[in-house]
Amino acid sequence: xxxxxxxxxxxxxxxxxxxxxxxxxxxxxxxxxxxxxxxxxxxxxxxxxxxxxxxxxxxxxxxxxxxxxxxxxxxxxxxxxxxxxxxxxxxxxxxxxxxxxxxxxxxxxxxxxxxxxxxxxxxxxxxxxxxxxxxxxxxxxxxxxxxxxxxxxxxxxxxxxxxxxxxxxxxxxxxxxxxxxxxxxxxxxxxxxxxxxxxxxxxxxxxxxxxxxxxxxxxxxxxxxxxxxxxxxxxxxxxxxxxxxxxxxxxxxxxxxxxxxxxxxxxxxxxxxxxxxxxxxxxxxxxxxxxxxxxxxxxxxxxxxxxxxxxxxxxxxxxxxxxxxxxxxxxxxxxxxxxxxxxxxxxxxxxxxxxxxxxxxxxxxxxxxxxxxxxxxxxxxxxxxxxxxxxxxxxxxxx
Length: 399
Fold this sequence. Notes:
Blueprint: H1 2-19, H2 26-30, E1 39-44, E2 50-54, H3 67-77, E3 83-85, H4 88-91, E4 105-107, H5 108-117, H6 121-132, H7 135-149, E5 165-166, E6 169-170, H8 175-185, H9 189-196, E7 199-203, E8 210-214, E9 226-234, E10 238-247, E11 250-257, H10 267-282, E12 283-287, E13 297-300, E14 302-303, E15 314-315, E16 317-319, H11 323-327, E17 329-333, E18 338-344, E19 347-349, E20 357-365, E21 368-377, E22 382-383, H12 386-398
Parallel strand pairs: 13-19
Antiparallel strand pairs: 1-2, 1-11, 3-4, 5-6, 7-8, 9-10, 10-11, 12-17, 13-15, 14-22, 16-21, 18-20, 20-21
């Protein structure tokens, strides 16, 4: 009986511990691998550097986080007062949807709120057909934009993120690519305005039907500093999330893919807070710049206007960097030193032009290059020629 009671107490204790909201310990800060998401990335929004990743380069279905790209293309290629006409294909999309009717018209701006606040699938298709002519045409625009942003392993098929496949593969992205897309999106002020909105109401153009929306990104009310966010779920993708958050003056991008399946919709919030706390506790803004000592570079067959033609000739190298660049700060680990590496030619042959590249100065965090600046010649160095020697001898001995 006592053994059974102890076992029951043990089970109850586990249930209690699992019910406590996830907190971040010092051990978590060193290695936050105990995430629910199968793929995750924490990115510095200012530089695009990945601060932490868990299987961040694996392609996975990404559900309605796709709509971040759909929104950006609509903002860049459409106008808010565009009339968007609803096709039968758009109206027939599955839940979650606004419930548009075939033939109705809406302002594009209103549909963007429907797209981002409530993740309506019919809205996404209506927008795609308006911007790209067809869903397939819009997918081509999505993939071209993803490449332009710097995505390496993204393949979009649908504008709403519903699971799909074609000859190019399945509809998918990676946690690192998704973070890049959100980083690009938050540079658009209208995108930020839309995704920060809590509530929005609008009517279709005739005014016969009115809709009221409440933002499904509950992180907006869970913590301060949320700039933007988009949830997603499909059977193949599981729960997905991407967001941009500010904390103590630092701006982070967090992307999560395959972050649980029903009934674990809260896993994405726990992972988000884990990564947000990890970034805040372990990273700080620091300048990488340190004044270097640059050796003189020997110049073969060279002569300066003020130098001795028969002696050794050297040229100074100077780093081409502005005052603002010297003050530039990077979000870096608090306990890791910045190292510099100077690559400089030991010797060059005249003539040398002022501004000619002699080498470069790189700054590193471990093996990761943070910044690179050219080292250029500070003056012109002429080349000694036969005629120059004759003229110099004549001037030296006969004047």
